[in-house]
From TrEMBL, chain A:
Pfam family, one: DUF6789
Keywords: Membrane, Transmembrane, Transmembrane helix
Name of this chain's protein: Yip1 domain-containing protein
Regions that span the bilayer: 50-71, 83-104, 110-131
TrEMBL record, chain B:
Organism: Halococcus thailandensis JCM 13552
Residue stretches making up the Cytochrome oxidase subunit I profile domain: 59-567
Protein name in the entry: Cytochrome c oxidase subunit I
Coiled-coil residue windows: none
InterPro entries documented for this protein: Cyt_c_oxase-like_su1_dom (IPR023616), Cyt_c_oxase-like_su1_sf (IPR036927), Cyt_C_Oxase_1 (IPR000883), Cyt_c_Oxase_su1_BS (IPR023615)
Protein family according to the UniProt entry: Belongs to the heme-copper respiratory oxidase family.
Location in the cell: Membrane
The organism's taxonomic lineage, starting at the top: Archaea, Methanobacteriati, Methanobacteriota, Stenosarchaea group, Halobacteria
Record keywords, A-Z: Electron transport, Heme, Iron, Membrane, Metal-binding, Respiratory chain, Transmembrane, Transmembrane helix, Transport
Pfam family, one: COX1
GO MF entry, a single one: heme binding
Amino acid sequence: MHRALRAVTGGLVGTVVLSGFLLVLDTQARGTLSVAAVVGRFLGIDGRPLIAIALFAIVTVVLWPALFVAVEGYLPFGPDPATRAVAFAAVIGIVFVVVGRGSITGPILVIYVGFSVLAHLAYGFAFGSIYGRLAG
Amino acid sequence: MIGGGIVLTVIAVLLVAGGTRFLQTKGWSAPIPRPDGGYLSGGETDTEHAEKQSGLLRWLTTVDHKDIGILYLVFGTVAALWGGTEAMMIRTELLTPTADVWTAATYNGLFTTHGITMLFFFVTPVFFGIANYFLPLLLNADDMAFPRINAIAFWMLPPSLLLARAGLPADALGKLLSTVGVKIPFLEALHPPETGWTLYAPLSIQSGNPQVDLLLLGLHLSGIATTLGAINFIITIVSERGENIGWMDVDIFSWTMLSTSGIILFAFPLLGSAVIMMLLDRNLGTTFYLVEGGGPILWQHLFWFFGHPEVYIIFLPATGLVSFILPKFSSRKLFGFKFIVYSTLAIGVLSFGVWAHHMFTTGIDPRIRMSFMFVSLAIAVPSAVKVFNWISTMYDGRIRLTAPMIFAVGSIGTFIIGGVTGVFLAAIPIDLVVHDTYFVVGHFHFILMAIIPMMMFAASYYWYPIITGRMYDQLLARLQAVLTIIGVPITFGSMLIMGALGLPRRYANYPDQFALLQQIASVGAFIIGIGVLLWLWNMVQSYRVGPRVRDADVWNLKRDDAFTREWQWFEEKLADRYGTDGGDPDDD
Ligand code: HEM
Ligand SMILES: [Cu+2]
């Protein structure tokens, strides 16, 4: 399979996993934080949750995988693409948490940080293992 | 700024990539170990699987005990992670004395669903999974006695979990649908029940939340599934043993599964009936648990007549695993095998005679109360026999501190605390003081978050090569074991202290003077949580790239003549796959 196609397929699966985690975060948080708002802040388009989510999906399906393919050889913990992608996603996760935080404070911050980073690690693992596996 | 997060991310990724490159030029490398030459697993590795359906269809239609065992394990793990998330949320809420993260109602929902998920959908399924995979191998049976019933029993569990826990998925679905503009009122009416896992009447009957009805149905269904599984285990152990396996050759884990299954047979049908009566009270106006009828105390009696045996249902398999695994890493035979079997059977019987120790404060007749106190004290004796025998097994043995062994030893230590606090609670004068405080929560978690999951971890590490044909990262595994064993006393020791100081359980807020102890407990819980993530990573990643196992004697068991049947089976399998000379695989 072509590299780009592998990356997008991986990105698709990873996005499903990521959305699962974020959806659980959103529902478990029971109104104390909104993932859509976090995503909006991350993308810099506060206040338009639907557009933010759609854009974010494009980013996680296409943009992150593209970036990964571009820098894969330079990432730590190779040669397994899955571990590399986990490291890659950890970076994304950290930026996501910091930029998306907004005014979230107090103990809920623990859940927010833990879950968002975990969601990204899972995204990276799902993406990387599919990407590697399709290489045959 | 529009796209600010994206730009920052790209910069950060480039920095990491550049940094790695720089470090590599300075000679740093962090390759993952790949002793088998860099092979990434792709699909089936097992020759015998070739005869089965492939892909998804295989997992949906399988009646092979090993496959069903794996299904159980995956299901139980998912439930555990779900319930574990709730545990982390509970501990987050309790970081501050006021209920400032979630409302008190949400907190009530959290501890209710946490308890139910863990007790009904995590522990029993995981032990059933382990037993499904290994009992037939240990007993030299072809399969379970009733392979199809085995599959049915498993496949009832996902729907029952969904029924019991419909609140969260309904909420999530409702959210998803409402973002595209669809509103379904029923989805919004379902809230997590706030009754506690014990579902005491009258609260559970008065609650107008339809989710309670679904929960009762889910519990009923899961009870049927569990009973079917138990019958299957009993028949398998009694009549499916291989020709050369007499009763004297039955291993200790099978014995505990036999006891557990026996208890299930008597306990779960009772829960099923009690739950149906509650459903009728809620919906059809019967009065089983109303003051005009049987009274709320009737529910407590029925519930605990099930509930106390239930704690032994989930506890006995864990003891079986200690008895099974501990001798392997002590280079000794299990000390007093027979007495452990007897004590297991004794617990099975006695467990039905202690239920009212959960009801000492309800005002029951003091003479009846006293008899329950004595039986409860007596039931500690067989447990103490086990502890004594485990310690004697290790005594003078050649101890090898592998991950399973660290877990086994840690289990003994934490179980002593759990058991001794249980004896305290069984003493009426003490229980009157600490009933319904954190002391009780500390007591049962020293068993429920200690020997039970610890021995599941131990089993996963001990048998991992058999299930996957690969080895995991042993250093990481030992780290996880140590983290868990440190985290448990930090978390639940704090709870024992808070309970002894009089802090009642099941409240989202608490007096300020408990803040420090609560925070310590939360930190301990997060340590345990991190350990779980390490375990998950180790399991998944090693399945992909862990070194392949070529020599079945992973644990050097032959030296001690402890190379038991499941390993012999594994050895044959390896010989089939690689040829007896251990040469290169001809398939793949
Ligand atoms: C040494 C044997 C044990 C004794 C004497 C014992 C005694 C007790 C007593 C008297 C209580 C009631 C405390 C109260 O509510 O005031 C209790 C609660 C509890 N025990 Fe134990 N226990 C023992 C072992 C176990 C084991 C092995 C488990 C679990 C596997 C367990 C799990 C529980 C649970 C879950 C509760 C609390 C139920 C609730 O109210 O939510 N116990 N125990
Ligand atoms: Cu009890």
